[in-house]
Amino acid sequence: MDRQAWFVVTLCAIGLGLWYVYTMMHPPARPVRATGPIPTATVALANPAAEPSASAAAAPIPAAAPAKQAVAAFPEQIEVLRNADAELRLTNRGGALKEVVLLNHVAENGERVVLNKGGSEPIGALVEKPGEPSLPEFTATRQADGSLLYERTTPENVAVRKRFSFAPSKAKKDNFVYNMEVEYRNNGAQTYQHPPYFITLGQARPIHERDIATYTHIAWCINGKAKYIDVNWFGESNGFLGMNKREARPVYLEKLAGAEWGGVANQFFATLIVPLGVKADQMWGKRQEMKQPDGVNVPAAEGALGLPGFQLPPGKSATVRFELYSGPKLYHRLSQLEHNEAEIMDFGLLKIVSQALLNMMNLLHSYLGNYAAAILALTTIIKLTLWPLQNKANRSMRRMSALSPKMQELRTKYKDDPTRMNQEVMKLYKQYGVNPVGGCLPMMIQIPIFWGLFTMLRQAVELRNAGFLWVHDLSQPDTIAHLPMLGWPINILPLLMGATSVWMTFLTPKTGDPTQQRIMMFTPIIFVVFCYNFAAALALYYTTQNLFTILQLYQNRKMPMPVMEKVTPPGKKTRRGKR
Hints:
The chain has 11 helices and 22 strands. The chain is of the alpha+beta class. Helix content is 32%, strand content 26%. The protein is elongated, with a radius of gyration of 30 Å. α5 runs antiparallel to α6. The relative contact order is 0.11.
């Protein structure tokens, strides 16, 4: 492939990457249309097959900013359920989960990771209006089986019992899966009409202040496909080049056509709630600004999942069950759950590639015991697999380089007639049997691998706090210091990646005109700027891959230069044979 083709392909890849980052940080405004109030559904909880009547998802419904939540008049009491991986801190306010402490995951400040820390609503509260909930007082009782029971009686004389426990199944035991069972018993004389209600999902905030905002979002899953609204959706936007301007939106509310689960997530952790036996018909979300200990505000996403109302005759009871997952986004554990919870990973269009690379990295880690070593081994496997293709591409580029003098002659001769020049160049390729795109195939294969790896590494919680030489956390940039006055971070691996890219450019056979060659020299610099603050694991992969390519280029340079001879057309051979 000549330098012009390399230039075009590289610019396309960089442009797609920049557009991908821009769309993540500036999601397009969704169409908003006013709708009437959501009608109250009549669904009996005793019928597990009952589903919302909505046939299609509606557009988000604009809503006024919620009123500030009133503080409950009764004192808060905290109860704790604990296993080897998580500590559930439950509150009597709404009989729900106040916080989830992940005992084996450390945050930046050295403390344990706490999900829903500082959230205005607990996880698993049943409310009619999220954002301004009335959290009634429940009474807690510990059960003999280790579960925790919360009870209260409504003014309509309906007894509400909420039981929290860890997943009992030994076959599919996961310490981040919790059960919540809600029982309603009508002890009154009249039929109890429960309106549509919401179960709160809690809140997700960024783990690191420099995280891209799209990592923090609300999500839901319909028919095995997840949808997301990140915190940028709520903010004011000037659009792209002045187009698609929009004002800030305080609340997200959408009708759903039967969602399997809803959740809130950040880059590495998620809280998901699965209603068992009934599907959700609404999704609610709100952005909050959370102040960090150092005084910096970070955006947080708060969510709630809407469920249909129901009727309960006198003397009858009904039970609805929920499965909760609140923990790290570990793909190999989420994929074993039964309700498509692994879709929270948001691998995008290259899901198959990302899943394969993640599984391979974890497999290599199980043997090597170090994630940096696993990434190096994964890079080696990928590069050795592509080695024959790259050899073929390098030979093609060497043949193109040998044709450069003749191509330059044609450019000079037909400089005033671009059409004729292109025709003559293509004729030259045909005469010497050179494929102008012969060097593209390895690059075309490496682009989906690179983007699949990028998508995987940005969410691989396994890499958190995994060290390598001077790198303390492979999931973050390998910043060792900051420039005085400017405060810019000094990241070593992206600089090494850029240096090896420049080295590789010098070794690559030169084709194209001098202007194109000079432009190509700037491509590594553009790529370094683009990748400078990405995860150190990605820079480690790309630097190692560059070193392998450099080794291969040196090996190819030892081979003799190809002798360029005109190819005799097959038809002429046949005619000579007949003579």
